[in-house]
Amino acid sequence: GESGYAQNGDLEDAELDDYYSFSCYSQLEVNRSHHSLTCTFDDPDINSTNLELEICGALLEINCLNFTKLQEVYYIKTKKFLLIGDSEICVKLGEKSITCKKMNIVKIVKPEAPFNISVVYREGANDFVVTFNTSHLQKKYVKNLMHDVAYRQEKVENNWMHVNLSSTKLTLLQRKLQDDAMYEIKVRSIPYSSDYFEGFWSEWSPSYHFRTPETKRAE
Amino acid sequence: YNFTDCDFEKIKQKYQKTIYNDLKEYMNGAKSTQFNSTVSCNNKSDCLAEIERLTFSAPRGCAPLAREAFALRTRATFALQCPGYSRTQTNNTQAAKKTKEREITTKKCLEQVSQLLGLWGRFCRTLWKR
C-alpha cells in the first residue's frame, strides 16, 4: 500500500495499542497484607464508558482478576499477587480484548509517600536535623527505598536543593543556608534501584516550613 | 527434574524477597529451632531438588503444602528460572487441586516447613561461597 505499512491489520493493531495505551502502578501491603494495582488511560479524553480492565497471570490460585472502575481510574485491591513473573493486563470491550500489555507487578511499585517530616535546629552543632517517617519500615516486601529530600528558600522560586539517602534522618549545615530566612522542605521515595522491587517515585510528603536563625555577626 | 541449569541467583532473590516471608508467616511464630533438622543438601541443585520434594510432597498427618502461598511461589520461581521445569509439572498441579479443605496446621506441617527454611538457608549459603 502507499503508506508502506503491511496490508494486514498491523497498522490498526498498532493504532489500537496507541489509542488505548494505559499506565499502571502497584502498591504492596498498602492495607495490611492487601496490595493494590491502579491503572489509568494515558489519554485523559478517551471515552472509557464500556471499557473494562482485566489482569491474568502471576496470581495466587486464580487465573484472572477484574478491575473495579472509580471514575477514570481502574483499581484492584487483593492479596492474590504472586509477585513472581509477568502478568498480562487487557483492555476489554465486553468479552473482546482490544489491547493487552505485559506487566510485572514488582517492577511497577509506587511507594506510599513519606510523612511527619520535621526539622530541629541544634544551636551547639550549628546544624538542622531533618527526620521523617515512612510506612515501608514495617512492610515485609518493599523495605529498601531511596528517599529524595528537597528543600528551598521560600522566596526563591524553583531553586530546590536535593539530597538522596536511604535512611530517614539527615543534617543540614547552618552555614549552607541563608540566615534569618524561611525554608520549605519535603521528601519522596522510590524503590531502591538494585532491589527486586522497582518502580516509580511516590507522591511528595506534605511540606514542612522552618526559619533559620539570625546569626550574630562578629563585631 | 535436574536443577543444574537453573538461574540460582534469581532463585535466591525471589526466595529472599517473597518465599521467605511466606514460610515465616506459615510458621506463625513457632520457632524453627523447635525441630531438629533431619534433611540436608550438599550443593545448589541438590538443595533445590530437596526443596521441591519437601514442598510438594504431603507428609502423613499434614495437608499437602502445595496449595500454600510459599509452594505456589516456589513452583512459579522454578518455572521461571529453570529451563523445562514447567513441562515436568502437569501431574503435580492436578494432585494439588484434588485436596479440598485445608486441615489445621499440625505439628507435622510446621516441622516440614521448618525443614524447608533450613534447606533454603543452606541453598543461599552455597551461593555465598561463590
Question: What's this, in brief?
Answer:
By secondary structure, chain A is mostly beta strands.
Features:
heterodimer; A: 219 residues; mainly beta; four-stranded antiparallel sheet; 1 helix; 15 strands; 5% helix; 45% strand; elongated; disordered N terminus; B: 130 residues; mainly alpha; 5 helices; 0% strand; Thymic stromal lymphopoietin (chain B)
How does this structure look, described?
Chain B: This is Thymic stromal lymphopoietin. Chain B: One of its GO terms (cellular component) is extracellular space. Chain B: One of its GO terms (molecular function) is cytokine activity. The complex is a heterodimer of chains A (219) and B (130). With 219 residues, chain A is mostly beta strands. Chain A contains 1 helix and 15 strands, in the order H-E-E-E-E-E-E-E-E-E-E-E-E-E-E-E. In chain A, strands 1-2-6-5 form a 4-stranded antiparallel beta sheet, with no helix packed on it. In chain A, strands 4-3-7-8 form a 4-stranded antiparallel beta sheet. A 4-stranded antiparallel beta sheet of chain A has the order 12-11-14-15, with no helix packed on it. The longest helix of chain A has 10 residues, at 10-19. Chain A is elongated. The longest helix of chain B is centred in the last third of the chain and has 22 residues, at 107-128. Chain B has 130 residues and is mainly alpha-helical. Chain B has helices spanning 8-27, 44-56, 69-81, 90-98, 107-128. Chain B contains 5 helices and no strands. The model of chain B is unreliable at 94-102 (pLDDT under 50). The chains are: A mainly beta (219), B mainly alpha (130).
- Looking across the biggest beta sheet of chain A, what order are the strands in? 1-2-6-5
Could you spell the SSE succession of chain A in H and E letters?
HEEEEEEEEEEEEEEE
Structural class assignment of chain A: mainly beta
Unreliable segments of chain B (pLDDT under 50, ≥5 consecutive)?
94-102
